[in-house]
Amino acid sequence: MLRNTAFKYVFPIGMLISIFLDGSIFSIFGASLSFHAVPNLSFLWIFLTMFFINDDEIHYEWWAMLAGIIIDLFYMGFLGVYTFIFPLAIYFSRWIYKHLPLNIISAFLIYFIDITMIYSLSLLANRLESLTNMSWSFYLVYVLGPTLAINLVFLIVLYIPLQSLFDKLK
């Protein structure tokens, strides 16, 4: 798959677009709503690429780490938890992906677990470092719930178009 020239260009360009859309969508939804719905299109892009293009030559964990570094440095200004949590979630996804059939239901379930893991580990790390004092109940209701909702909607909306894009690139 790495020999496919179209994929070599489409994947990094899609990654950059998704990283910038994360911030844009968050600024639109984050400022206007009383809860924090955090879109994660960059992780979704890597996740669906891994889901549709099952190629062991592509090191999705490294791409996830690069996305985490860019997100941490660009949006937070320092190297943070996404640098380590994104590759961990992709590694988990690849492991569980091998045991489930390739369909939208399994993608939905794995992505649900991934988003829950990413934001729960992020909160745990931030609490350990005393960067936040957010309670778990507040987190579940005002952060994780809306974040899961917006990201699962994005997964459902983008599943078919990205599947057809990656089928054309094969």
TrEMBL record:
Keywords assigned: Cell membrane, Cell shape, Membrane, Transmembrane, Transmembrane helix
Protein's membrane topology: Multi-pass membrane protein
Keyword presence, Ligase: no
Chief place where the protein resides: membrane
Residue stretches spanning the membrane: 6-26, 33-53, 65-92, 104-124, 136-160
Subcellular locations according to the entry: Cell membrane
Family assignment from sequence similarity: Belongs to the MreD family.
Name recorded for this polypeptide: Rod shape-determining protein MreD
